Amino acid sequence: MEPVPTLLLTERVAAECSLHPDDVEFLLAGHRRHVQLLPTRQAGVYRLTPAGYAGVLVTPHSRLVLRPKIPIRNVFYLLEPLADVPVAADATAAVPGTEALDFLAARLVRLLEERAAAGLHRAYAERAEQGPFLQGRLDLPAHLRDPHGRKDQLHSRFEDLSVDVPCNQVPRATAELLLRSALLGDALRDALRRCLRDFAAVRGVALTPDLFAAATADRLAAAYRPLLDLCRLLADSLSPGETAGAIPCPAFLLDMERVFERYVTRGLVQAFAAGTRYTVSVQPTFTASPSRPGRPDVAMRPDVLIERASRRVLVVDAKWKRLPQAALVTDDLYQVLAYATALGVPHAVLVYPGRHDRAWEYDFPGSHVRVTVRTLRVVGPGEACASSLCRLGRALRRDAR
User: Fold this and answer.
1) Which terminus of the chain is less hemmed in, N or C, by CB atoms within 10 Å?
2) pTM to 2 decimal places
């Protein structure tokens, strides 16, 4: 078989590529929000512009490697600042493009091993059982629905202390999803299979928003938060399409907007953790106006909301965009102004990635809202990026006083 051609693309940089008609149909059907595709004057040649995603997308007749706009080493740092970053020089070459997937898979293996060594969380969960003896309480509706109606078979429901709970179901389901990806290397595939042996008593279930919500709602499983956060990121990256198509094609698309939001949020939570006066809410959802019959609600969800003594003092929104030197992205400004006005917050902050720290302010006397625009360093040594994030935290602590 002839090798599948690899198209090397860079995040938010347009490139003209030759595409098979099946590839065009595939991209338009399921990946419009990941890659912008426009025709050119030359037959069979299209202008491709990746959105804010990095990873690998396999089409019926080619592979699209979407490279991030920052060095891969810095992508690793944004994903897991405390993890060991693979030592490798950044180079431009026709490589497989799965470095980020391998990095996250290795991180998942490590967290699964740590959970197993510490002991899987157990909680009481409701179980249904059918047998000659009653366990717990009689499940009368199930008993009446039984078409056989045998008197020696009772339907019971009871509470059982078990590891088969959402906070363990999510990691197992994520590992199984990762194992189904053709992009995963053999060594990591074997390591994941070994980890799943410790989760043998946990049922295999489908990854759904409700399952993630149930897992994070368990306050007794607080130690699982880094693992669950990584599982959500992997689940979103491995299932980027909203609908399934007729052709099975593997994909791993890392949403860099979410990676940056996650990185900034983690830094702000750490910066405000020392002060008991502050409360940091991550992506809270608010209804901006009271509900009325026949009128849709206006829901708002900023990245971070900071309160001091139960008073909202700061709203922060992170944007994975290249900030122009002499202009401002007005849509972002309008959005954060709407957050501040609707939530009654006097100070709003927009955070963008950059090579250096910059900051400037806008005052709006008519609305009594002040907006600060900041750039956060995401390129260079990890120590320099960490210092930039610490400076951002200290500055926002001063603003929140």
Assistant:
1) N
2) 0.80
